[in-house]
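Let us practice reading a record.
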Amino acid sequence: MLEKNKPWQLAAGAAVLGVIGAAGMFLVEHYRQEKMRTSMAKDLARLEKDMSKLKFELQQLQSQQSTERKGRLKRPTKAKKTNSVISNTTDEYFSASNIDSSDMEFYDLSEDESSQVTNSISSLDLLLKELDKKLDLGDVEDVEESLQKLEDLCLEHPGNPELLYRIGKAHHKLADTCDDKEVVHIKLNKGIDACRAALELAPEHAEVHKWFAVLIGSRSDLVSLQERINDGHLFKKHVDIAISINPNDSSLHHMLGRFDFEIASLKWYERKVATTFFGEPPNASYEDALAHFLEAERLAKFEWKENRLMIAKCKEALGQSREVVEWLEKAKISKNTSLDEKVDLDVESLLHKYENYR
């Protein structure tokens, strides 16, 4: 456990793997609980019973129609036997009974069912867009409301990766605003479980890889040193996969900027520990980190307070004091939500440090 490690080991490990937790500052639950499974099983059983009853009634009605028409409809001639043997069962049934297809239009639900499925998918897509807005820009209450809605949708659309990774995202957002480590750990693990389930369903989905990495990284302060090391490998692996699928995602560039920034911040003895853990010291500079943050700024479609703060920190590390203030001022005027409180404190603290350059 962490408390059994020497202080210098903790400091080094935290610095090397702190990138994981740091990346989690900006950036689904696999809802297969017993109660939900039981509820769904009951619904399916009831549906099966209703369908069986409907099928029986339909067969009775068809039999009755066939009997009524028997006296005035001709029986199939011997030539009928030359019909193709590959005719489907439904076609053979209606041919033998000589029921006009118009008599069965009421029972042909294929077109209606297809329309219902299409409308359902369309409605879900629209709803997800609204939920995304709340998850990205909303306050804590909006995120909590969105999480509850996503949970409900999982019961209607089980095994949907689009819902699962968003659940993970919501859990991360809520964990990031909580100071209770036990609650944070629970939320992050729920999010990780949801994203892991989504990965099995959609292994080529960039957002699933991204949010799995974010959640893994966010728990670095809550696990043992060895788990941090394992999580570090997972974090880098899934960020690389995500960015290979979607290179124009600003958040992925931000995450790589975080990684480079933390590596560039390592002291010599921390690099030595990094060599022991990783086989060779990671190679990155503040210039590399700055390039990723600037690319994230260019690609972002909103005013990204935290990314601007990280640009300012890179400028500080490079000794560009006046540009530090310039980027802090840009961060300060960015739109605020209750999810930005921690970032706001960092911005104000750094601005105070560079008061003479304002």
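A brief commentary: The longest helix spans residues 34-69.
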